[in-house]
Amino acid sequence: MVRELESDVVVVGAGLAGLVAARELERAGASVTVLEARDRVGGRLLSEPISDDEQVELGGQWVGPTQDRVLALADELGLETFPTHREGKNVLELGGKLRRYSGTIPRVGPLVLADIALARRRVDRMARRVDTEAPWKTPGAERLDSQTFEAWLRGGMRTRTARRLMMIAGRTVWGAEPAEMSLLHVLFYVRSGHGFDMLMDVEGGAQQDRIVGGSQLLASALAELLAGSLELDAPVERIAERDEGVVVDAGEVAVRARRAVVAIPPSLRARITFEPDLPPAHERLAERMVPGRLTKVTAVYSQPFWRDERLSGEALSDTGPATLTFDNSPPGGSPGVLVGFVGGADARRHAELGTSQRRRKVLDGFARLFGPRALQAERFIELDWGRERWSAGGPTSNMTPGGWTSVGTALREPAGRVHWAGTETAGEWSGYMDGAVRSGERAAAEVAAVL
Ligand SMILES: Cc1cc2nc3c(=O)[nH]c(=O)nc-3n(C[C@H](O)[C@H](O)[C@H](O)COP(=O)(O)OP(=O)(O)OC[C@H]3O[C@@H](n4cnc5c(N)ncnc54)[C@H](O)[C@@H]3O)c2cc1C
Fold it and tell me: Could you tell which of 433, 438, 439 is best to mutate to test the pocket of ligand 1, judged by most ligand atoms within 8 Å of the CB?
């Protein structure tokens, strides 16, 4: 028996974007039903308990300066932030050699440093011209969109080492290979995140702080505030325009509403049947904007032993499998937690290995960077977001070459009575929790204006 519900608005997806949209619409006086495919809220936010009262995040976690909307939300929900642990030296593993360094830029030769500095400046300069609300209107958009980021790196950077470092950073930031992304997309993303350094840095950057108790609290606390119905285990299969509204089918539930807000990653829109068909650009969007591939690995230790040797836990490695690591211990520093990222092609290769082999390879990598005590992990937790049916990848989705200029408008232009949210649709902090919040607020305002 299908249960039939009725409300002013139906929201598809109980990630941060969908939940914010629902809350804003309720504040505007609308009745809202939220349909979520999984048996939990939070989408790309997921916390895992590591002791009686401590959690680690397996998905999105950091917040930083200028991410005003997510910070305001945390504040409103009574959640506190704490700084990412960063005291001590960072480690760079390059070509089989280990070096220790301070700050974001590793100690490599002066030529390489100059090469990186120049590339960062050029990316920032080009990014400043991008219109983040409509990247296809950027001067020279067609030319920038027809190039891959890799082609630009090859043409614009002189040293192989500098190129390699940029590629490693890119695999974590986008979960993609530079060859898979349009240059215009990279510039859009850099502008959207307030500049290259802001994206990369811990202090003063996007990795500066974490939420006490884990970022998934943002979603679960929001869900508790909703007055309307939140249906879990309700994957939406069909959205049909009927009479003056929409009918949304999600297995055992069907919702009749005046408008729909679809707050899921763009590629997953293709799994829903729309009646009538979506306009052609909307249909092609799923092919052009593809989810990154990112696996997050976490090793839990009785103590953060690397701190004894004045190491920060932050490392960059060209050997991997985790090519970027951080100290992810809870605020009190116990237990000790190292987190690592395996991104892009590395993540696809890593997924081919068996469970115990993956664990061994990651811990061997940690041991090379931080010493043999890294092998004594009490717990090893991994999440390959590419294998998550209802995310299809992470941390975000990236436009392939030609994507922004051919189907960019479809990202958030409403299709009939269907409106779109989700971090990918944000102009500011796209790809981040902050972008998800902003997109939910924008979609809610759009719908409230027409109801
Ligand atoms: C490993 C990783 C690390 C990250 N690190 C950071 C970070 O440090 N800082 C940061 O700000 N961001 C980070 N992010 C990104 C951040 O998690 C996302 O930007 C944000 O959570 C996206 O929220 P959203 O609501 O737009 O989408 P989602 O969280 O993907 O929510 C979409 C929801 O829709 C549901 N859904 C999908 N299809 C259907 C359907 N057909 N019917 C019903 N429901 C459906 C999904 O189950 C999901 O709950 C990271 C992401 C990952 C994966």
Answer: 433
Average pLDDT over residues 392-418: 97
Q: Phi then psi for 120, rounded to 5 degrees?
A: -60, -45
CA-nearest of 51, 89, 46, 47 to 302 is 51
Give the position, in ligand 1's atom list, of the atom nearest the Cα of 250.
42
Find the 277 Cα to ligand 1 centroid distance in Å.
26
What is the structure's pLDDT at 109? 83
Give pLDDT, residue 208.
97
Nearest protein CA to atom 36 of ligand 1, as residue: 13
**Pick from 118, 98, 96: nearest CA to 107:** 98
Indicate whether residue 235 lines ligand 1 (CB < 6 A): yes
Residue 58: which of 339, 389, 302 has the closest Cα?
Answer: 339
Q: Name 286's Cβ contacts closer than 8 Å, sequence gap at least 6.
A: 266, 267, 268, 269, 270
Ligand 1 contact, 386 CB (< 6 A): no
Read off the pLDDT of each residue in 308-327 and give the average, rounded to a whole number.
96
Contact 305, 82 (CB under 8 A): no
b/e 80-117 (16+ beta carbons within 10 angstroms → b): ebeebbbebbbbbbbeeeeebeeebbbebeeebbebbe
Please give the average per-residue pLDDT across 51-57, as a whole number. 93
Residue 273 pLDDT grade (very low, low, confident, very high; cuts 50, 70, 90) = very high
- CB–CB of 89/101 below 8 Å? yes
pTM assigned to the model: 0.98
Q: Strands 397-399, 245-250: parallel, antiparallel or unpaired by DSSP?
A: unpaired
The listed range with the strongest mean pLDDT (96-105, 165-174, 353-362) is 353-362
Whether the ω angle into residue 304 lies within 30 degrees of 0, i.e. cis, is no
Output the DSSP codes for 52-88: SS-EEESS--EE-TT-HHHHHHHHHTT--EEEPP--S
| Residue 258 neighbours by CB under 8 Å, 6+ apart | 8, 9, 244, 245, 246, 417, 451
Residue 106 has pLDDT above 80, yes or no: no
Q: Which of 93, 60, 74, 43 is nearest to 328 (CA)?
A: 60
What are the pLDDT digits (tens) for 337-384?
Answer: 999 999 999 999 999 999 999 999 999 999 999 999 999 999 999 999
Query: Which parts of 352-417 are beta strand (E)?
Result: 379-384, 397-399
433 lines ligand 1 (CB under 6 A): yes
Type of residue at 302: S
Neighbours of 428 (CB within 10 A): 19
